[in-house]
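Bug: token stream looks shifted between consecutive jobs. Job 1:
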Amino acid sequence: MHTDTRYIHALLHNDRQLIEEIYTRYSARIARFVQANNGSADDARDVFQEALISISRQALRPGFVLTCPFEAYLYCVCRGKWLNELKRRQREIVTISETGGYAGTEIADALADATMLEEERDRLFRLFFEKLSAGCRQLLRLAWSGISMEEVSAQLGMSYGYARKKKHECVNQLMTQIRNSPQFTLIKNP
């Protein structure tokens, strides 16, 4: 565990003082990177904020441990987000690399890649989950909420056996749609 874990705790516990320190210490360098690579000051602020949200989400996952300097991890996540945005905008690839000066960049890159991959998996899941029928979405939300299938079936007014069968069908439909999407191949074999 790295000593910069305090920044992760600050994000998770909404420690305004340390979060302000994160902005003060690191946002200018991220802004320079984004602006030097076809972005605006607004783009830089958006990327920085999105990166902090992504880092917070990743930190909530079981087993997360910050093993590199927070600044390097934040930079790598911001860089990945900005590269994705440039691809989305169909602009040229980033013309400079500003990884110099960051300690632990290799570890930070690996941690940032894991963060971006989890975010893409979550996005893909949400995309296809929303394409399910309203009934399937309701059934799965209830089933995944932690209540028993008996309670789920009672809330939905269906038999226990039918609720289990329908849940199985809905999960299979969701997984089939995800597996058949071109994006799945990209995140399966990053």
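Job 2, same session, no restart:
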Amino acid sequence: MNEVRSDVSFKVSKIFVEGFYQWLKFFSKDQKKLTKTFAHIFNPDVFYVAMIDEKVAGFAACARPENPSVHLVQKEFRQHLGFWKGTLAYRILKKEFEDKPYPFSIPENMGMIEFVATDAEFFGQGVATRIIQHIQQTTPFKEYALEVADTNLPAVKLYEKLGFREFQRVPEKHPKQSGLNFYLYLKNIPDKKI
């Protein structure tokens, strides 16, 4: 596992776009264009990347409000998506990724696990499990929380298997458009000797 470096940010962006394409295709159906658009957003101080045979197999972030996982630059969105669509994408996604507050206070000893994704080539090989375990073993937090869509059943099952338990759910304001009913918030207090 390595922290994200600029040489892998494009590969991370490709997996990110594939994983979140259902929501991102509104801005462009061209996945290559979206990959270029998002390559700049990942904070290398908080992203952890799993490499297998020199390929990016998956990643996740462990962030805090004072050190967020992503930072969006409007100029990059306009450059890759055009002025109007880039501006629209930037405004909507900044609200969703950067400015969206969690519906609970985050204590000093809690790390927020975000943007967990695995490359399709490595599905079912335990990549996400190992990344989350690595984060829990190497970061200083006593507890971890994450957000997941209620409709993402494979992710919910994985997190429950890793000891995460739901402590809050928030209804989605536009369930027909988003394809989900609730945001589930789960937390875990790991044994650091995993």
